[in-house]
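input
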Amino acid sequence: MSYDLIVIGTGPGGYVCAIRAAQLGMKVAVVEKRATHGGTCLNVGCIPSKAVLHASEMFDEAGHGMAALGVVVGKPKLDMAAFMKHKDDTVAANVNGVGFLLKKHKIDSFHGLGTIKAAGKVDVTAGDGKVTAIEAKNIVIATGSDVASPPGVKVEFDEKVVVSSTGALSLDKVPGRLVVIGAGVIGLELGSVWRRLGAEVTVVEYLDRILPGMDGEVAEQFKRMLEKQGVVFHLGRKVVGVEKGAKGALLRHEAAAGGDAREIAADAVLVAVGRRPFTEGLGLAEAGVKLDERGRVAIDGGFRTSAPGIYAIGDVVRGAMLAHKAEDEGVACAELIAGKAGHVNYGVIPAVVYTSPEVASVGRSEEELKAEGVAYRVGKFPFLANGRARANRATQGFVKVLADSATDRVLGVHIVGAGAGEMIHEAAVLMEFGGSAEDLARTCHAHPTMSEAVKEAALAVDKRAIHA
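output
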């Protein structure tokens, strides 16, 4: 069986790459180790987590947020079976949708572990041990990432007491006490789910701040919001041990610099310290595919690896581990293989934390601009002064616009507030075209909308916000 392209992995990067290649006239095959397509994102990541985030927000709203609107309801009761069915149904609809799209584009699917045997040759080993050999002119590695453990700490995941993000999406009951290791996106999202459902949530983070990489002012204000919701933070703390017991787990931590040892008892521990590229069993060394110092597949600017005819995209290579970054790389890689001008603008990739409220950003933070010595101006506008936010009782947070002092070009936009993940895209479009704060400020926004706060923040860059 011979193809123009074989894509190993059908997460957002892989299946999008395969579809774009098919659109460009290539004969394409995909190899997927799971029974269903969609990778971590659709099966046990982005999609199921958004389902439980939304459901938990509705539960919390019913219990605390409706009486002030004149909607009087009794104390809500959690039906865990229905809660999890909503998540499972959402996953099924999405993964089945990807399967349909692959068939629609006449892409052949092989299920099993894909191993590169030589240039243009891939063996697919199914669960029953059967091996199918396929060949192609080009191979794209899109195998994504896997759960990482805290450095220097032995962690045994049972996905019931000590859980990864996968287990945290399938707990059979609300834990009385949940300890989250890591104050990044995954830990805060899933921690907030179980907090809203009634768990006592404590977050232990090695750094002295939450959301590393995000704008510092946004992260600090967001931390205060989470604390008001009942989340407890222990920052600048290093986890030195996680022990399972008969009734839960015991987590030991100390100051990041050492000493000051403490213990926390928990019914469940969520390990959310990040992810690592998945490269095991792919035969990369034998195929001549080199890895970088962090275990990622090394690529050049055109996604080419050190082995001719082999490319790599997504979480398995450098850059942010984001599904939409992988998708853009998948499209660009397929276009480059087809001889076209594929390109990804890594300076304009949005990032979103899907908590309540949401946090979203695109471009550079103040800390990054200062480190680079870039002169910039800041415009900020609070949702408290936005009419729609007041009507919706969603006044937490603000919009921050960072613009070049000399050219007024927008360098970064940061939002914390309800719907931030949707609002960030007008900033992304503006930045993709090299737009200025003045361009954004003079773009008419519908009233009343939350997005008016973005316009006002752009006006504030020139100290002429109207409503603040």
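quick obs: The two ends are 65 Å apart (CA to CA).
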